Amino acid sequence: MRSRARDSHALFLLPGALAFLAVVVVPFLMNTGVSFTDWRGVGTPTWSGLANYRELWGDAAFWASFRHSLFMVVAMAAVPTAVGLVLAAALFDVAGRPGGGRITAILRACFYLPQVLPIAVAGIVWSWILAPDNGSLNELLQAVGLGGWQRDWLGDPDIALYTVMAVMVWVQLGFPLVVFMAGLQRVDPQLYEAAELDGAGWWRRFRHITLPQIRPEIHVVLLWCTIAALKVFGAVYVLTKGGPGGATDVPSYFSFTTFFEKTQVGYGAAVSTVLTVIILVLTVIGLKLQTRAEDGEEGIAR
Amino acid sequence: MRSAVRRYPVLVALCLAALFMVVPFLIVAMNAVKSPAEYSANGPLSLPEGLYLDGLKNFWERVDYSRKLLNSVLISGSVAVLAVVLSVLNAYAIGIGRVRGRAWVLAFFVLANTLPQEALVYPVYHLSKEAGLYDTRLSVIIVFTVLQAAFGTYLLAAVLGRFPREIVDAARIDGANAWQVLWRIVVPVSRPTLGVLLVFFFIWTWNEFLLPLVMLISNDNQTVSVALGVLQGQRLMDATMTNAAALLGVLPALVFFLVFQRTLTRGIAVGAVK
Which of B250, B154, B232 has the alpha carbon at shortest distance from B200? Predict the structure, then answer.
């Protein structure tokens, strides 16, 4: 009886199993397999063993793309988490005062807005603002007498990466902010009151109460933002196309151009396989952390 | 008195930061309603002198924007509904059916969820060509139904794992089969969570870029995101056109945001796992 009930439930997995087989498992195995071959996308792939990976090892463009990935991790995980924490704590303070609830809701909405924008659209908005001639930023600098600071923000190989990073901070900030604000609601207000009575200033309360109390959220946010940073594609495609001269190339864009522009499918598959391994390792570590956090306290991924 | 003085700097700083976040939207809106002549005379920072809507209208017609909107709505809507159905079926087997090996099944869905699309994109492109599905909206619907359902399964399995056992058992004793329990009891009770998933799947699919960019090459099938991204990538747009494109791209997102604000900002605690 019991086992029959189980078997009947297993049938519910059937559509999902077939769909995942066709869309995820088979393509993923094919991609991994192709990474050990030489293939131009037509005809039969020829086995080449680890040749693609050996080539990757010596490919400066590949290493550069992963180095830029680290910059993206700073821009999409580290900075938004740090800034998001301070902003969330400050907003939470304001929300606690009389009449603060409405203001907080509006401010939070402003910070979150870029998160719902398609990245392609965010890219259009910013590449127009940052345009060298007639772009709003350069015009603004001119208007306030800082004309000497005008730059070709996305076209200068020395600063393009930092410009993209700044845009990504803008895009990403709302996510940690909203998660942290939700997390702060869990914190017992008496902790703050007691600390205030003891004469602890804002900064000390932030360090000794806020940070430890929402540590699980911080871990989760850092991890998922890091993964998102490693996957970043649309922003680079729209803002710089990896340029100028590869100055903003990232692994996902690198594999995209290798697949579809150079049609070196085997090589592109090797790039994406390396990226996948890194992301899967991070995911497993993250899930371990998350389970431990959930065992420790009330669940965070509610 | 002192607390008021201390409160204001923080509030002012917060408002300034929030303003910085929305300023790009304001600049775009301001310039999308300027005529090219006015734009070149006064630059991007002046307030518009009147409402010039021809730029928007020209852009709309030139890229056949109605068609792009229709494609996006069709694809995102189908994906949202189908992915929720698929997630419910999977999660029902895992969370309530407690099938054997469910921990492994769940781990599989989690990994599928974080898998970078770069690792799937070429085979999906190749296979869809073989299957005659390349450059069809159906291909994108199928792929994203599955990818979104990976997240949906993960989330719903946890929610259904806490589903009150007594209700299910009582229904079984009354003679309901597993199918009836799912549609008559589990789905109606879980409706709020399913609603959140529906909204998230819709918006996430709307914003997707890489796979639709690869799969949808003909103008008639492209989504809003792909069409605007490709136009921008070609660097063929002048300032007025860029602004029109940006404003028309921002508007649907703004509408979703206003309509679903509560779901989005509250449900993000749910979405924290994505």
Answer: B154
| Cβ-proximal residues to B7 (8 Å cutoff; 6+ apart), any chain | A94, A97
Closest CA to A68 of A133, A153, A165: A165
Answer yes or no: do B192 and B216 share one domain.
yes
Could you report how far apart the first and last alpha carbons of chain B are, in Å? 44
Q: Are residues B152 and B44 in the same domain?
A: no
> Does B5 score more than 60 pLDDT?
no
Q: Is the pLDDT of residue B7 over 60?
A: no
Cα dihedral A176→A180→A181→A187 (10° resolution)? 180
Beta-carbon separation of B122 and A259 below 8 A? yes
- CA B65, CA B247: separation in Å to the nearest integer? 12
Tokens found for residue A2: 């019991």
Q: Search chain A and give the residue with CA nearest B123.
A: A27
Residue A16 and residue B94 in contact, taking contact as beta carbons nearer than 8 Å:
no
% of chain B at pLDDT higher than 70: 93
pLDDT of A301 reads 39
Same domain for B132 and B9: no
Rounded CA gap, B22 and A116, in Å? 13
Residue A228's domain spans which residues? 51-296
pLDDT at B258 over 70: yes
Answer whether A251 sits within 8 Å of B239, measured CB to CB.
no
Q: Own/partner pairs for A1-7, CB < 8 Å, 24+ apart?
A: A5/B97, A5/B172, A5/B178, A6/B97, A6/B98, A6/B99, A6/B100
Who contacts A183 (Cβ-Cβ below 8 Å, separation ≥6)? Answer: A213, A214, A216, A217, A300, B269
Q: Which residues of A touch B73 (CB under 8 A)?
A: none
Q: What is the pLDDT of residue A242?
A: 82
**Which of A286-300, B78-92, B233-247 has the least mean pLDDT?**
A286-300
Q: How far is residue B177's CA from residue A5's CA, in Å, rounded to a whole number?
A: 9
Query: Do B6 and B82 have their domain in common?
Result: no
Closest residue in B to A135 (Cα) is B44
Contact B135, B216 (CB under 8 A): yes
> B127 and B194, same structural domain?
yes
Q: Which domain holds residue B89?
A: 57-271
Which of B30, B52, B74 is the last residue in one of the domains? B52
CB pairs under 8 A between A and B: 287
Contact at CB, A12 and B93, closer than 8 angstroms: yes
Residue A46 has phi, psi (to 5 degrees) of -105, 135
Q: How many domains does chain B have?
A: 2
CATH number of the domain encompassing residue A117: 1.10.3720.10
Among A128, A231, A233, beta carbon nearest to B243: A128
Chain A: give the shortest CA distance to residue B42, in Å: 10
